[in-house]
Automatic annotation (TrEMBL):
Phylogenetic placement of the source organism: Bacteria, Pseudomonadati, Pseudomonadota, Gammaproteobacteria, Pseudomonadales
Organism: Marinobacter segnicrescens
Cofactor: pyridoxal 5'-phosphate
Designated name of the protein: Aspartate aminotransferase
Gene Ontology CC, one term: cytosol
Membrane spanning residue stretches: none
Length: 393
């Protein structure tokens, strides 16, 4: 039966990661896949994570199953991190959080859950969006529609076009929004725009679904969640997918969470039971280790403080690099949008041929769309990268 299958190309982001690894040039620069890097070009293990792992190794007493929802302690900690401590939605029992294998696991389980609610569900995603959103959501059988998000000329959010397009959504349609640090553009909604889109969602009876993959890497943990929290405070139902890959640096531990908010506590109990049954039929239970690390950190005030200060340092560093990158490119044109955008990514707005020349002639790797991972820069390589970009323009 397998002989009928045709070979597929690799996912472009993962393919680029491999090509970079295979490139023997010592001065190559990786601005491709979205992982944070320090000044030495390493993706470090945070000290708070190291310490939590040390404590886990010393104190762990069992490898017994965790159950489809994962660890209750982790789920409670993630609810507070995402929605804010003391949020009425948590107090009133309108919120359930389940531990998932990464943000991808949360996105896919949400999609399977939505299909269970209504097999004809349509989900609206931004153009552009993270490429993996399409197979993760569409692969569960949801219909994908796109709303314009980024103006390709200004590389800023075209909010009027976004709202106009979403006017075409029908009651019950799902709107996927990036909580902060829009991937791939770095162009975020401001709070006023979150309020306006919330009003539209309420008026049209849409279901918001927020992907929060970069909380803490834009403007800080609280500010990055402000739009999501406003939305959650206004709507009867909502979904959110969260990832600890970036803000805890737990990429390979596959640590995420799915947040389910319902109109009442009893609706939420029934909905959660359905969600858990969806999970059971897919992967049964999430892996424990990454979530145990997060639970250990968030359950200890010293470790929490240490983690927040490390994350704050990463966030500051990205902001610094954004500023320095925009300044270094200034002689070649107006790249000031890079300093205004947030998170790891921005589009340079250059052609695929220019991207190829940067890769082949200069060993500088970015996605064909010209998405760069700003966190892959450092003060040492920045002049080299800026010179190379100027030379291909
Ligand atoms: C990215 O967009 O580069 C990251 O989210 C990593 C991935 O899995 O694509």
């Amino acid at each position: 039966m397998f002989e009928t299958l045709k070979p597929l190309p690799q996912d472009p982001i993962l393919q680029l990661m491999q090509t970079f690894r295979d490139d023997p040039r010592p001065d190559k620069v990786d601005l491709g896949i979205g992982v944070y890097k320090d000044d030495a070009g390493n993706t470090p293990i945070m000290a708070a994570v190291h310490e939590a792992e040390r404590r886990l190794l010393a104190g762990e007493t069992t490898k017994g199953y965790v159950g489809p929802a994962g660890s209750a302690g982790y789920n409670d900690a993630m609810a507070s991190l995402i929605l804010g401590t003391d949020n009425a939605l948590i107090r009133d029992g309108r919120t359930a959080v389940v531990q998932t294998p990464g943000g991808c696991g949360a996105l896919r389980m949400a999609a399977e859950f939505l299909r269970l609610c209504n097999p004809a569900t349509t989900v609206w995603v931004s153009t552009p969006t993270w490429a993996n959103h399409l197979p993760l959501l569409g692969g569960a059988g949801l219909t994908i529609r796109e709303y314009p998000y980024l103006n390709r000329d200004t590389l800023q959010v075209d909010f009027a076009a976004m709202l106009e397009s979403l006017e075409g959504a029908k009651p019950g349609d799902v709107v996927l929004l990036h909580g902060c640090c829009h991937n791939p553009s770095g162009a975020d909604l401001d709070l006023e725009q979150w309020q306006d889109v919330t009003t539209l969602i309420q008026r049209k009876g849409l279901l918001p679904f927020v992907d929060m993959a970069y909380q803490g890497l834009g403007d800080g943990l609280e500010k990055d969640a402000a739009g999501l929290r406003h939305l959650a405070s206004q709507v009867p139902e909502m979904l959110a997918a969260a990832s600890c890959s970036k803000n805890f640096g737990l990429y390979r531990e596959r640590t995420g969470a799915l947040v389910l908010i319902s109109e009442t506590a009893s609706i939420n109990q029934a909905a959660t039971s359905q969600l858990l049954s969806v999970i059971r039929s897919h992967y049964s239970m999430p892996p424990a280790h990454g979530a145990a690390i997060v639970e250990t950190i968030l359950g200890d005030s010293d470790l929490t403080q240490q983690w927040q200060s490390e994350l704050g340092g990463m966030c500051e560093r990205i902001l610094h690099l954004r500023q320095a990158f925009a300044e270094a490119l200034a002689p070649a044109g107006d790249f000031s949008f890079i300093a205004r955008q947030r998170g790891m990514f921005s589009f340079l707005g250059i052609t695929p041929e220019q991207v190829r020349a940067l890769r082949e002639d200069h060993g500088i790797y970015m996605l064909d769309s010209s998405r760069v991972n700003v966190a892959g820069l450092n003060d040492k390589v920045l002049p080299q990268v800026a010179d190379a970009i100027r030379s291909v323009l």
